[in-house]
């Protein structure tokens, strides 16, 4: 740097406004012996002593490209330059308005004014716009303008388009985002990493909002999603995987995302997305492999994917898995597993799961209020029997089950397991049974009874003694057994234990649960 430049720098550092503006100009342009240093130039221009000066405002408009102005957040300064009738500022601001609001005429009007002022780049951009067919998409016209202005050194077209698309997506303006992304893709055939990420974001936002993206052709979308999926983007893998399998993305047709179906590749992408943490992909994989007409049909894999989805907390998967296990249950262990999944789904508000749980509880007579008053009276004589009656009322137990179940051993997070009755020889009457808690109150009261029995270790005697004691107290207090004990034959009870028999009895709610 020569002596004159050093003197200019010293003058600028001392606070001279003209020197500051000149040093900033030279740094921004990298001219007159100064290295190109955008941050240094902006620092000189942003000083409070010069920021509002016309010379500083003009320097920003003339010496910085539009993308640099956007990155430095100096769009307000560019607007002030337009107010001073600076044609180069008007051209750059017009380009931004065209990119940011492609449906508005404001940008085109401003560009025409700049062209009438004699600005060469604006005139060239107007000619480029006119050369585009009126029937062409708005993105094609925008791409022509940005490309022309880039050739005149006014901006970096791709950088401006990306900045505009990002703002549009943040504002939820999906039409504008789709248009400018399509224009950006025409400017960048190599699919810039940032551009591809924005396309994925736009596709995801369009699915969430339930709209389609205009001007964004599938020939652009599919390769970008593919590139992002290969780079580990789970949202891209999930979106493209579904589209390749013919699954629409909400209101966005699969044909807008993938040119032609490819179920095997789609399934592979869905598996990649699921493994990366996209839980809904497990359900798509389940449906694909469970469909006998699919080229990837595989019942064993379908069951595995359903289990993965349920484990990850997908409510639909929990309901389906619980219903399928319960339908084929032949052992108590299988019934417990099924009720655990149905309980999880019902806890999250799944109505069909709740209906299936209700189908496993025997009904009782009498009003809850009357039964509760009777239990409160009986509790003064025998709190252990009162606890059994509360559980019997909540879980629809038969008399044999109510008098013999073990509250501590039978307690489960989802309800109660009535173990094998040691006092009854008939298998159908003594076999164990899993019963769900259909209300939070039932779970809480069962837990309280289990704590009572665990704490006191009360000896209730054998079945005969328990039954005699219960009948004596009921007669003394005038209580009705039908309020506390469900009535069911051995055949009916068996239908609650065997999945195939239960499935026949509860076929209507089961059909609805599997079809929902």
Entry keywords:
single chain; mainly alpha; 3-stranded antiparallel β-sheet
Compose a concise summary of this entry.
With 516 residues, the chain is mostly helical.
End-to-end distance, in Å?
Answer: 76 Å
Rg, rounded, reads: 37 Å
The share of residues in extended strands comes to: under 5%
Largest sheet, strands/sense/barrel: 3 strands, antiparallel
> Helix content range of the residues, please?
55-70%
Task: Report mean pLDDT, rounded to a whole number.
Answer: 90
Total DSSP helices? 31
Which class do the helix and strand fractions yield?
mainly alpha
Taking pLDDT < 50 over at least 5 consecutive residues as the criterion, the unreliable ranges are: none
Strand runs, count: 3
Q: Order the strands across the largest sheet as they lie in space.
A: 1-2-3
Characterize the overall form: elongated
Could you walk me through the main structural features you see in this protein, from its secondary elements to its overall organization?
By secondary structure, the protein is mainly α. Among the domains are: 3-63, no CATH class; 190-279, no CATH class; 315-361 and 505-515, no CATH class; 368-487, no CATH class. The protein is built from 31 helices and 3 strands. The chain has helices at 3-13, 17-29, 38-45, 54-63, 66-71, 75-83, 87-100, 106-116, 120-131, 138-151, 157-170, 174-187, 193-209, 218-230, 234-244, 263-275, 280-290, 299-311, 315-327, 332-347, 351-358, 368-379, 383-395, 399-404, 407-410, 427-430, 440-456, 463-477, 490-497, 499-505, 507-515, and strands spanning 411-412, 415-418, 433-436. A 3-stranded antiparallel β-sheet has the order 1-2-3, with helices on both faces. The model has no long low-confidence stretch (mean pLDDT 90).
């Amino acid at each position: 740097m020569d002596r004159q430049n050093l003197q200019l720098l010293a003058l600028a550092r001392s606070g001279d406004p003209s020197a500051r503006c000149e040093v900033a100009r030279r740094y921004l342009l990298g001219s007159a012996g100064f290295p190109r240093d955008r941050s240094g130039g902006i620092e000189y221009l942003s000083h409070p002593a010069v920021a509002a000066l016309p010379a500083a405002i003009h320097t920003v408009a003339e010496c910085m490209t539009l993308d640099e102005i956007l990155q430095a957040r100096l769009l307000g300064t560019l607007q002030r330059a337009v107010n001073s009738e600076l044609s180069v500022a008007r051209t750059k601001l017009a380009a931004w308005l065209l990119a940011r609001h492609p449906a508005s005429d404001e940008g085109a009007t401003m560009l025409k004014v700049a062209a009438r002022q004699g600005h060469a780049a604006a005139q060239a951009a107007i000619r480029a716009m006119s050369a585009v067919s009126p029937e062409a998409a708005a993105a094609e016209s925008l791409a022509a303008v940005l490309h022309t202005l880039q050739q005149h050194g006014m901006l970096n077209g791709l950088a401006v388009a990306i900045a505009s698309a990002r703002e549009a997506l943040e504002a939820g303006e999906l039409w504008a985002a789709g248009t400018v992304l399509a224009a950006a893709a025409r400017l960048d055939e190599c699919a810039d990493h940032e551009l591809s990420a924005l396309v994925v974001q736009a596709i995801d936002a369009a699915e969430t909002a339930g709209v389609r993206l205009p001007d964004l052709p599938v020939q652009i979308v599919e390769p970008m999603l593919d590139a992002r999926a290969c780079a580990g983007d789970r949202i891209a893998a999930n979106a493209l995987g579904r589209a390749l399998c013919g699954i629409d993305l909400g209101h966005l047709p699969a044909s807008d995302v993938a040119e032609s179906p490819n179920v095997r590749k789609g399934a592979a992408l869905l598996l990649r997305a699921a493994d990366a943490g996209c839980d809904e992909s497990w359900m798509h994989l389940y449906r694909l492999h469970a469909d006998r007409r699919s080229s990837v049909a595989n019942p064993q894999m379908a069951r595995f994917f359903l289990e993965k989805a349920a484990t990850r907390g997908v409510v639909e998967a929990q309901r389906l898995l619980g219903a399928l296990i319960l339908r084929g249950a032949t052992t108590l262990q299988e019934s417990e597993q099924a009720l655990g999944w149905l309980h999880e789904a019902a806890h999250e508000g799944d109505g069909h799961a709740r209906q299936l749980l209700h189908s496993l509880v025997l009904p009782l007579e009498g009003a809850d209020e009357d039964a509760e008053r009777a239990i409160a009276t009986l509790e003064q004589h025998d709190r252990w029997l009162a606890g059994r009656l509360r559980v019997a009322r909540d879980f629809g137990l038969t008399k044999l089950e109510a008098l013999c179940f073990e509250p501590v051993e039978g307690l489960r997070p989802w309800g109660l397991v009535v173990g094998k009755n040691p006092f009854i020889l008939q298998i159908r009457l003594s076999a164990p049974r899993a019963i769900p808690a259909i209300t939070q109150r039932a779970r809480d009261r069962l837990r309280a009874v289990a704590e009572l029995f665990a704490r006191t270790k009360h000896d209730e005697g054998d079945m005969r003694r328990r039954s005699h004691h219960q009948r004596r107290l009921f007669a003394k207090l005038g209580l009705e057994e039908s309020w506390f004990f469900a009535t069911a034959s051995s055949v009916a009870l068996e239908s609650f234990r065997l999945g195939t028999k239960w499935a026949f009895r509860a076929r209507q709610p089961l059909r609805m649960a599997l079809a929902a």
